[in-house]
Design a protein that fits this description.
By secondary structure, the protein is α+β, with helices and mostly antiparallel strands. 60% of the residues lie in helices and 8% in strands.
């Protein structure tokens, strides 16, 4: 991703807000290092009219949270997405980011009506038998209204905020530019992978803003669980759904936290906890697609005891290879095989630097020792995966975003399950799916598929080899073969050399002027009016140069 400074100028009003908030929360050093301080000073009389507010004495992680809250919904969502990435975000910052809360007021009924008219070119009275203008719930991306279909079915209408796409895209553009500036000018920020975090966030929030995509996801879950009598997925009305409006069946059910209501249902809270765990394990480890945000607000229990999941905007995907790698990890723990566990780390993750293999193996042995002799059904799965990701983070190995989402969902489910059943253990529901994955791996059909896939890849590579070899030889014969060298870290060295040479030149010129004017001053009054100003000016330049060197801290 290349830097485009024009993005900062094109959104100068929002840039002003971001710079002002950073300064107000004590991040002036960051503003200096990425080069925005000089622009702020140059244009503040026209654009940056707010004064820098005094910053209370707070920890850095607290100031980061307050900065994100001050910058609005997009940055709050960015912080919430960051809180799901323990592989790149330190534990103290994770704890602080989990405190982020959205406080977005609902938009007016007239705007909701305007969105419906724009999307369907019809009034709500034509689209629905009844439409409630007051929203049932509101979030940063949209809000939900109740309605009734002409056939009498109660509906839930999810309507996107009118200008949210424009505002989010503007903020993403600025985030990408700021991430590039941080990566270039603040080397210690690279451990957090700012560019990767922003790109991950951009993919996530763009999916959430597409309500039609959410509708397709709901239909896919409905198809996968069509023969399942535990999970219920609300019906989507496609003739009343677009990218900005999602119309689905309204579900009446008990909140998972309402224990009094749950006790009136035909299934006990402990059975409901087990049903929820089996549903999630089936999603993740059998279908490879799971609900990424199963918090209590997104779960309803129907009068017949079935579980209904709401809000399919955040979905995680686990491909077959990732699922098998997780099985390999569990087998490596059971067999006390640190080398096999290290192989899983290297297959799953993406190193962000040189890895100390000896230290990685030592950490992996300690990790495995914590679970020695513990049966699979008694393992704390969320803690195991969190410890595993912690090792990846320690050794600067980037973990797949889908695995991060899985861990977050498992932690949430474990908390809900424990609140319903004190003896709840998620691992007991995982074991049958792990055993099935192990058995399926060694089925003749699966083995034949893997061999065929590998042979096809090898045949493709052999087929392309003569073509690539011919191109290389042709370039070599035409003296057109180029070798690209990536000089890492030289930009900073070149910048320092330029600064040093500029100071040396200025110092030599100033010294020459001082010496020349000092010689001319005693010569008489004819040159006095020229030599004295030159002498004074040269002295001021010399003092400015010395002050600049002292201020830089590199004397």
């Amino acid at each position: 991703m290349e830097s485009h400074p024009f993005r900062l100028l094109r959104n100068i009003g929002r840039t002003r807000q971001i710079v002002t908030v950073l300064l107000n929360h004590g991040f002036g050093d960051v503003v200096d290092r990425i080069g925005l301080r000089s622009a702020w000073k140059r244009w503040r009389c026209f654009l940056f009219r707010r004064k820098e507010a005094p910053t209370p004495r707070l920890k850095t992680v607290e100031r980061i949270r307050l900065t994100l809250e001050a910058l609005g919904p997009t940055f709050i969502k960015f912080g919430q997405v960051m809180s799901t990435r323990p592989d790149v975000v330190p534990p103290d910052m994770l704890t602080e980011l989990k405190k982020l809360q959205e406080s977005v007021p609902p938009f007016g009924p007239q705007k909701a009506v305007q969105v419906l008219q724009h999307e369907f070119e019809k009034s709500p009275s034509t689209l629905f038998a009844e439409f409630e203008t007051e929203p049932l719930a509101a979030g940063s991306l949209g809000q939900v209204h109740r309605a009734r279909h002409f056939d009498g079915t109660p509906l839930a209408i999810k309507i996107r905020r009118p200008d949210v796409v424009r505002d989010v895209e503007r903020d993403i553009s600025l985030m990408q530019e700021l991430a590039l500036l941080l990566d270039r000018h603040v080397p210690e920020s690279r451990i957090f992978d700012p560019i990767g975090l922003v790109n991950h966030f951009a993919r996530t929030i763009r999916r959430e803003m597409n309500f039609a995509r959410e509708g397709r996801t709901m239909e896919e879950f409905s198809r996968l669980f069509q023969d399942n009598d535990i999970l219920y997925v609300p019906r989507v009305y496609w003739d009343l759904t677009t990218e900005a409006v999602l119309t689905m069946e309204f579900v009446e059910g008990a909140n998972i936290n309402d224990r009094a209501a749950l006790l009136k249902l035909p299934r006990s809270p402990a059975e409901i906890a087990g049903d929820g765990a089996r549903i999630f394990m089936k999603q993740a480890f059998e279908f490879g697609m799971f609900h990424g945000d199963p918090h209590p607000g997104n779960i309803r229990i129907l009068p017949n005891g079935r579980v209904c999941l709401l809000d399919y905007g955040m979905i995680g995907m686990l491909d077959e290879e990732t699922r098998e790698q997780l099985v390999d990890l569990l087998q490596a723990i059971a067999n006390q095989n640190a080398d096999a566990a290290v192989d899983v780390v290297l297959h799953l993750g993406e190193p962000r630097g040189e890895i100390d293999m000896g230290l990685l193996k030592i950490d992996m042995r300690d990790f495995i020792a914590n679970y020695y002799g513990v049966e699979l059904e008694r393992i704390d799965v969320s803690r195991l995966l969190s410890d595993f990701v912690g090792i990846m983070s320690t050794h600067h190995i980037r973990c797949p975003g889908s695995l991060m989402l899985l861990i977050r969902a498992l932690v949430t489910l474990e908390g809900i399950g424990a609140s319903l059943d004190p003896e709840f253990n998620l691992a007991g529901y995982l074991q049958p799916f792990v055993e099935k994955l192990v058995k399926d791996r060694y089925q003749p059909r699966k083995m034949a598929e893997r061999v065929f896939r590998d042979v096809r890849m090898l045949a493709g590579s052999l087929h392309d080899l003569p073509v690539h070899l011919g191109k290389t030889l042709k370039k070599l014969a035409n003296d057109d073969l180029q070798v690209h060298l990536d000089h890492r870290g030289l930009d900073y060295l070149i910048l320092e050399l330029e600064r040093a040479s500029n100071r040396l030149v200025v110092g030599m010129v100033v010294a020459a002027l001082i010496l020349a004017s000092a010689i001319l001053i005693p010569a008489g009054t004819n040159t006095f009016w020229v030599s004295v100003p030159i002498y004074l000016l040269s002295s001021l330049l010399a003092m400015w140069l010395v002050y600049g060197i002292f201020r830089s801290g590199r004397l």
